[in-house]
Design goal:
Layout lengths: L4 H10 L8 H39 L6 E3 L2 E4 L3 E6 L12 E9 L2 E4 L1 H6 L5 E15 L4 E9 L1 H7 L6 E3 L11 E5 H7 L6 E13 L2 E15 L9 E5 H7 L9 E6 L5 H12 L6 E3 L1 H43 L1 H9 L4 H32 L1 H7 L19 H27 L3 H4 L4
Parallel strand pairs: 7-12, 9-11
Antiparallel strand pairs: 1-13, 1-14, 2-5, 3-4, 6-7, 6-10, 6-13, 8-11, 9-12, 10-11
Helix pairs in contact: 1-10, 2-8, 2-10, 2-12, 8-12, 10-12
């Protein structure tokens, strides 16, 4: 097969055995390849595990918290110009001339109903549901806890939420209207020492009334009909009830203060949905709540940690890649006579430069290839390796080890970046080789 001369020489030198090079140059060369392989392997493993942990947080926490919540919002229509009569000063002209006074305007407002919003197709929204949330205190026979009461429609929750798939006892269809039934998290059930069938007292201060005995919160006895376990920090803070029952608990049986809950196919794509609601539907930003307001700092911390770990491991790869500089500088110094002979035979300085650039690239390909294979294999077998060495980690939702999520695009991008670093590290020694003068190099030969 035909190769360009620069590529042919670089390839032959890159695959040459140890005897054709000095032992020290060979050691540095192999050390740089090993460093690139180990750095890339570690980066693939760490990024895959961090992606898995981020996915678990997204599943466990954002499976409970509403992605977007919308309330009724007024829209200001175009101003109407008020017409006022002005009496003409000329009696010969009509005295009842009517002119428009631009300074006197009246604004009309209209309200976007939740039904109109729910019927508007928006890209990224998979379902909508009438929804209500209230802060409450739950009392059992042994303890007292503050919770968020979520008034939901059971049929929508069964179809579009992960909570319905993580029920330990009961099901959402048990939240029938008028039953004042409740589903609580496993952590909350443990703290309250409550079981399915027990009755809890729910007190809502937001719907309190004044009585001869003072201000009394709205309260009701509810029956526990189900227990869910998402394995998140929200398990002990949320209680699900039927939407109609929550409206009655809030002394609003008609549901005039209820909102609209939007389910997204990707919770991280909430900004596009918010923009569509404000631009197309006209919903005010002040009348929308997103999951970012509650859980944004947590996911920002996870993202920052992942980025910092990636940066740190990329610096390790960069250090290994720049070991190529020292190896190639030694090669250039050692092979000055050979470079001069090639130039006297007609090889252009640019072709000499490409020999060393491609040599660094071939070394990078070897290191990246080894690191890529090792990284993928170890990542796929990571939980088995942890079991083998006797330190298993049960952080996945099913409790079976570390959550791992390999992103092919991300891994390919990391490998290409490693190759780019190898090429950049080869530029300096390659330019040094290009500037060698044949007459001076051959004086001592």
């Amino acid at each position: 097969m035909f190769y360009p001369l620069s590529a042919f020489i670089a390839y032959r030198y890159a695959k040459s055995n140890k005897a054709s090079q000095t032992s020290f140059v060979s050691f540095i060369n192999r050390f740089s390849v090993a460093g690139i392989a180990l750095g890339l392997m570690a980066l693939i493993i760490v990024v895959s595990v961090m992606n898995g942990l981020e996915g678990q947080l997204k599943q466990r926490i954002l499976g409970i918290v509403p992605h977007i919540e919308v309330t009724k919002t007024p829209i200001i229509s175009e101003s109407e110009i008020t017409k006022t009569p002005i009496i003409s000063e000329n009696p010969s002209r009509t005295s009842n001339a009517i002119t428009e006074t631009p300074t006197q305007t009246a604004e009309k407002t209209q309200t976007v109903t939740l039904k109109e919003i729910s019927e508007t197709p928006i890209k990224g929204v998979v379902a909508t549901m009438a929804y209500r949330e209230a802060e409450a205190v739950v009392q059992s026979r042994s303890d007292l806890r503050g919770v968020q009461v979520h008034g939901v429609q059971p049929e929508v929750m069964i179809e579009h939420t992960l909570v319905a798939n993580h029920m330990e006892q009961g099901r959402f269809s048990d939240l029938t209207e008028g039953s004042f039934a409740a589903i609580i998290g496993r952590s909350l059930a443990i703290k309250l020492e409550a079981r399915v069938g027990d009755r809890l007292r729910v007190m809502v201060a937001g719907a309190s009334v004044y009585t001869p005995f003072g201000r009394m919160p709205s309260q009701r006895l509810v029956t526990v009909v189900g227990v869910f376990d998402m394995g998140s920090q929200m398990d002990d803070k949320v209680m699900y009830m039927n939407l109609k029952d929550v409206n009655r608990l809030m002394r609003d049986p008609k549901g005039s203060e209820q909102s609209l809950r939007l389910f997204l196919n990707d919770a991280f794509n909430y900004q596009a949905v918010v923009s569509a609601l404000t631009d197309r539907v006209g919903v005010s930003v002040n009348n929308m709540k997103t999951w970012r307001e509650r859980q944004g700092p947590l996911f920002d911390a996870v993202k920052m940690e992942k980025n910092m770990m990636t940066l740190m491991l990329l610096l390790i790869i960069a250090v290994a890649a720049f070991n190529i500089v020292s190896a190639l500088v030694m090669v250039v110094t050692e092979k000055q006579g050979d470079i001069a002979v090639l130039q006297t035979q007609g090889m252009l300085p640019s072709s000499v430069m490409w020999i060393f650039v491609l040599n660094g690239l071939f070394n990078g390909i070897k290191g990246a290839g080894i690191g890529l294979v090792l990284g993928v294999v170890i990542t796929l077998q990571l939980n088995n390796i942890l079991d083998l060495i006797g330190s298993p980690l049960a952080l996945a939702a099913d409790g079976r080890g570390l959550p791992i999520e390999m992103d092919v695009v991300q891994i390919v991008g990391i490998a290409l970046l490693s190759l780019l670093l190898c090429v950049l590290a080869s530029v300096y020694p390659a330019r040094k080789a290009m500037k060698i003068a044949p007459s001076q190099a051959l004086q001592n030969e």
